[in-house]
Amino acid sequence: MIEHIHFYYCNDLHSHFDQWPNIVHYFNKKKKQHAQADEQSWRIDIGDHVDRFHPIAEAYNGKANVELLNEAGIDFATIGNNEGITLEHEHLYHLYDQANFQVTCGNLKPLNKNKPSWLQHSITIQTKENLNIKLFGLTAPFNAFYHPLGWHVESPYDYIEREINELKRDADILILLSHLGLSEDQLIAERYPEIDIIIGGHTHHLLKNGKEIQNTLLTAAGKHGKFVGEVHIEWDHQLDKIVNKQAYTVETEHLSQDQDTVNKLEKMNNQAQELLNKQVTYLENSLTVNWFEQTPIIDSLTDKLKDWTNADISMLNAGILLENIGAGEVTYGDIHRICPHPINPCTVKLRGIEVLEIVRGAHDEALMRFELKGFGFRGKVMGKFIFSGIDIDTDIDEAGIEHVHHVTFNGHEIEHDKVYTFATADMFTFGQMFPEIARSTTKEFYLPEFMRDLLADALRS
């Protein structure tokens, strides 16, 4: 006898709700089809459903996202870094209190307190033919961010190495819900053939028809709900093993919409706007934002960052502010719209020679016009880089290229071997935009504050 088993999933929605009604309609349609065929199916979220760039996620601290997952009929979920490190400790601790689905994230635990009631190391499903399917979730170990928020994330490899035998012992089929990224999923598949399927996310990779590594089937459905994923398994009860497993993704743009979800999102958005309509300050004059010029508002924010972190020098990119700020009442909703990024302040210790390299790199026209995607940045382009705490002497050559000649700190040339405390946005600790910042071993992150909290302070003063 062949038993047919079906899983449907989404990953890395990031509160991009445009296609969410389409996904819900697809989930519902497939659930009904399988039920009519007397087959079982389940629905899964692989994390980063929450993203506080959206007013709904911001106003409700992620709880509205959980409500949407409930109404979509989600059965299981794991945690992404946007749930894990963009919410304050208590907001994450109680995020899934009202979830109608089970949550697994084996390598996450709170520091110095009991784990929340919803957090499970693994989940076991028993099918109607008495087949045991075990699911376990793992998330990326960004402990430099998790620890200040009162959480610890164990290395996924340490966790699997310790738990793999127990996970597989009473499981006919073992499935990893991975918010670790494609390279990690591939390495896990190579090391642990006991895992039958890895449903992945985090790095926004799209595996349209899955990918097999040894015995393991990998799958992932991109980002922002542009695709929905599905996994189909055939288990032969006579042979007592999987005889077929396949993974597909389906583009969502042209799928039908669930009208109840459309209405729910509209209502949630209106309510979120009301909740965010709290006055932060009152401005006598409007403030202009220009991504390629030094303006009073980006100067004020860069100064605020330096003072707030007690740094020697600070740097921000003008593209972090998205819109002008009008005169009159300024609400938290305005602040959120102007600076929606889930980006934290941070400091690093740098030698003077490294500061000079950063200043020179920041004057690269190509970097200013770079359209960054990810690392928490929700804007369009980097924009002009603004510094506080140092004076920079430049000139422009005949080709219109700006060159840095002198950089002074407190009236004196930057000392090459002196160590300076350098404040910036945490996104520059990732990637290769500024290698000197990324490779620093003395990073300090300021959580749970976002850059928009400093913007609110700057505007008040």
From TrEMBL:
Entry GO MF terms: 5'-nucleotidase activity; nucleotide binding; UDP-sugar diphosphatase activity
Name of one Pfam family that matches: Metallophos
Domain 5'-Nucleotidase C-terminal: 285-427
GO cellular component: a single term: outer membrane-bounded periplasmic space
Keyword Coiled coil: yes
Transmembrane segments: none
GO biological process: nucleotide catabolic process
Coiled coil: 255-285
Calcineurin-like phosphoesterase domain mapped to chain residues: 6-205
Organism domain of life: Bacteria
Alphabetic keyword roster: Coiled coil, Hydrolase, Nucleotide-binding, Signal
The keyword Coiled coil is assigned to this record: yes
CDD domains cross-referenced by the UniProt entry: MPP_UshA_N_like
PANTHER family, per database record: 5'-NUCLEOTIDASE-RELATED, 5-NUCLEOTIDASE FAMILY PROTEIN
Protein's name according to its UniProt entry: 2',3'-cyclic-nucleotide 2'-phosphodiesterase/5'-or 3'-nucleotidase, 5'-nucleotidase family
Taxonomy of the source species: Bacteria, Bacillati, Bacillota, Bacilli, Bacillales
